[in-house]
Amino acid sequence: MAFPNKKRHGGSADTSILTKEGPVARIPKGYILNRLTTLLLTILIAATLIWLIPRLSPVDPADIMLGRMSAAGGTVADSEQILATLQERFGLNDPLIVQYLKYIRNVAVFDFGLSTASFPTPVAVLIANALPWTLGLMLISILITFFIGNLLGALMVWDHSPKLVRVAIPTAMVFTSIPPILSGLLLMWLFSANLGWFPLTGSYGLMVEPGWTWEFTQSVLYHGFLPALSIVVVTFGFWALGMRGLMITVQGEDYIKLAEAKGLRPRFILYRYMIRNAILPQITAFALKIGLLIAGQVLVERIFAYNGMGKLLYDAILDQDFPVIQGVSYVIILMTAISVFIVDLIYPLIDPRIRHEAE
Amino acid sequence: MSVLDLKDLSIDFPTTKGVVHAVSDFSVSIAAGRRVGFIGESGSGKTTTALSAMRMLAAPGFVSKGEIHLHSLDSTNLLGLSDEAMRKVRLRKISYIPQGAMNSLNPVVRIENQIWDGIIAHEGKVAPLELKRRSTEVLANVGLPAHVGELFPHELSGGMKQRVCIAIGVCLTPELIIADEPTSALDVITQRHVMQTLREVQDKIGAGLILIGHDMGLMAQTVDELAVMKLGKLVEFGPVKQILENPTHPYTKDLISSVPLVGGPSFLDSPPADHTNQTATSSSLDTPLFEFENVSKTYGEVTALHPMSFQLDGAVPKIISIVGQSGSGKSTLGSLMLGFNTPSSGKVKFFGKDINRFNSREKLAFHKDVQAVFQDPYACFNPFYRVDHALSFPFKRFGLSKSDAHTRTAMEEACDAVGLDPNLVLQRYPHQLSGGQRQRLIVARALMLSPKLLIADEPVSMVDASLRSTILKNIYDLKEKHDISIVYITHDLATAYHVSDYVMVLFHGQVVEAGPPKAVIGDPQHDYTRLLIDSIPWPDLNRDWGSASTAKAALERLDSMPRDQSAVLRGDIPGFQLESM
Domains in chain B, ordered, with CATH? Predict the structure, then answer.
């Protein structure tokens, strides 16, 4: 039943909001406040879960540390006392609610405590060292993937695509069904071991001093190429297939037919009428993917011995290093929540049909 | 002088089941400044023919024989042009105004940019100020203010979008305009306004016009010459006057007679039965079947429905028609009756109980007793299930089924009742059926549940004109043969005139005129009702449809009318009381 939508007819009244004012002026304060509350609440709930879940495990971190110490130094004298001291120092004797409140307070300022595996390095330092590597690798590879994937997906549907593209794409899609570790190993075997074009492991050369120098940048790009490629190769298919479906829907829309009847150039129709509309849901997916990507990158970083968050997380899990696991999980959630927040804010600018609720 | 010639045109669609000859041996020529109508039911090939002149046939269709000549070109044969040369013909020489104006504009691009895209594609770089001047000018040509250019499509009403499409179509003053059912989704008042705008602009630029449609009345009021098509063949061609007055082909005669006329002969086979002898059997009902008690509905600051009260007895089945244009609140009324929407004030009562306070058992019974037929037959079936599942599911769900055999019999009876062969339709999937068949199945589904009331919201506005009377006959039979009361929501006054016992005319959420159809529609008293009736295109050249300016003036006059006036009541009928507010 077609319910009357009276607002639609009020077109003329809304003109002022939609035309001359700049994009920023269009986001009302109430809406930002509303979204911000949601963002903070999401982070709080996530932080709580991250805190809660390890506490359901019977493992006592102090016990693990003690075990590690004894493994390193043979026997440990006064183990009972050391255990008590450690438990005291980690605050494990406080009532749960006190532990929780302390944790929330600390997390708010990115204080995740000390790593138990690389004691006494603060977790925040470990993360701060790893994050730029992951962000760099991930952002570059996900942006390339997003661009290539969507473009290829669009070309698969477009009537005027070169024949070669149409044949080549499905072949390339085969890679999508390969898990990233295998594609990583395959690329390593081909380009590093056999051809020797790229280094086998590491995030930069051993001979290079880290710093803002051309030499270092070069080395980073050189070392990052294969890990990035292995991510691109296995994930572009996700975007391509999604885009293909969206493009098919858009292709059937009446406005594409009218665009053609207007005598527009086919390429112009592709960009401005087809891709411009089909890409909208992909942007939401992009924001959601950012958090997942760190998790997905764990194994890639591991096999390339790349010093990012993935490797940090992997090692922390092996070592049962709870503070690090908590810290990394928290950062992943933070990044997802923030990117969703940003997309929420900009979405009405890229799709005029969506309005900020507060308007 | 002829602008476009179609010569012995044949269009084929090769499919896996063999070649479909969509159009065969079609020849028509269109002169400058002349309006030619292509009329026929869906699938008759009228759109395909017109699109071939744009070289925009949907794959895998192709022109298998014949020639298309556009005389202003150096090499006139359009079929021989390169893709790039053809692209330049589109919009500049031949423009196309699409059928679904609702979705024909890019939703994320401002209106003026969509006009500019067309200009730039053909003229290269044009100064921004010049672009702005030209888009403002073409918008003004179709009666839209300049600021519309800065809006996005979703901010416009259907009629405005259709006029934007016309503006795009004429922005490069083409030699030929192809308008593909440009008003099929609009109500009569907007339709008249849009058609007259199109006619005016086309006159002004002196272009030829091909108008595609299935409404004989609209053709009669708009075109000079008419091409009647059936199954891909041209069955009759000539001046519209000659075809209307002396149709030679039986199909043309059918088309003309299928248009229901106000005051004309009824398209219902059975004359309304005399119910006086039946009243004795069921008049013992004390509580009315359905009741509105001061019901109103507001959305934010907008009032969709002003407070209204009526009682429908249900002792004797009645068909109550609710008419008005889009946005008049008639669909809101329907959704309130179905309980899909809760009233902002007042009570909706079914057998004396407030339907919004039902417990779950009562609600189930209510949904069985009050059934609905909606506008879009394509959206009303779950595409994953066969028809028999769609029909039997509610039947079982409401506990009416005694056995599988019983369900089967009930389905077959219901199909028979709406004139469909159960053996043919029950095993099919919805996509294998036509719009008309689907809509009849929805009536059948409602019938199986033997409801007390049926709400039919624009049940025939999306099906072919030739099928409309059949479906309305099915609905009418529900009242006559199955004692079901019906609320018929429509913008089509002619059908309301024939099927209903009582008519309410809604304007801005208010009843402005109500009474028996012979009085309300046959002899309207309220200005709005008159405008609605004047806007109907008649298949009769002696009836004047008025000009664009009269239509516009009438609308403006109505909009400035005071809103609080009471309804013009034209007499009561037994079994239904509308209370004047």
Answer: 2-257 (3.40.50.300), 289-579 (3.40.50.300)
Contact list, A260 vs chain B (CB under 8 Å) = 56, 90
Beta strand pairing status for B502-507 and B319-323?
parallel
- Distance, CA of B342 to CA of B335 (rounded, Å): 9
**A106 lies in some domain:** no
Contact A253 B304 (CB under 8 A): no
Highest mean pLDDT among A103-107, A255-259, B464-468, B534-538 belongs to A255-259
Rounded to whole angstroms, the Cα distance separating B78 from B4 reads 10
**A14 in reach of chain B (CB within 8 A):** yes
Residue B327 has pLDDT above 60, yes or no: yes
The SS3 of residue B249 is coil
Give the span between the Cα atoms of B260 and B497, in whole angstroms.
9
* pLDDT number for residue A119: 73
3-state helix, strand, coil in chain B (%, to 5): 40, 25, 35
Which residue among A11, A265, A277 places its CB closest to the CB of B87? Answer: A265
Domain of A175? 119-321
Paired tokens of A226: 């294969």
Tell me: pLDDT of B113 over 90: yes
User: pLDDT, tens digit, for every residue of A204-227?
Assistant: 776 777 777 787 788 888 888 888
In chain A, residues with a C-beta closer than 8 Å to the C-beta of B96 are 258, 261
Strand order in the sheet with B370-373: B370-373, B453-457, B485-490, B319-323, B502-507, B510-515, B568-569
Task: Give chain A positions within 8 Å (CB) of B454.
Answer: none
> Residue A294 domain-assigned?
yes
What is the tally of structural domains in chain A?
Answer: 1
- 3-class secondary-structure state, position B274: coil
Minimal Cβ distance to A254: which of B91, B104, B118: B104
Do the domain assignments include residue A290?
yes
Least-confidence region, from A216-220, B4-8, B310-314: A216-220
What pLDDT score was predicted for residue A271?
93
Comparison of pLDDT for A120 and A205, the residue scoring more:
A120
Q: B108 — contact with chain A (CB < 8 Å)?
A: yes
pLDDT tens for residues B154-204?
Answer: 888 888 888 899 999 999 999 999 999 888 777 888 888 888 889 988 999
Could you say which DSSP state residue A58 is in?
Answer: S
A306–B contact, CB cutoff 8 A: no
Q: Is B57 helix (H, G, I), strand (E, B) or coil?
A: coil
For residue A218, the domain's CATH number is 1.10.3720.10
Where helices occur in B360-403 by DSSP H, the ranges are 360-369, 387-397
- Residue B553 or A66, more confident: B553
Residue A155 domain-assigned?
yes
Q: Which residue of A has its CA nearest to B50?
A: A261
Question: Is B336 an interface residue toward A (CB < 8 Å)?
Answer: no
Q: What is chain B's Cα-based Rg? A: 25
Locate the chain A residue with the closest alpha carbon to B168.
A262
Q: In this complex, do B151 and A11 lie within 8 Å of one another by their Cβ atoms?
A: yes
pLDDT tier, B564 (very low <50, low <70, confident <90, very high otherwise): low
Angle at A95 between CA A98 and CA A89, to 5 degrees: 80
Residue among A338, A330, A324 at smallest CA distance from A121:
A324
Strands B208-213 and B502-507 come out as: unpaired
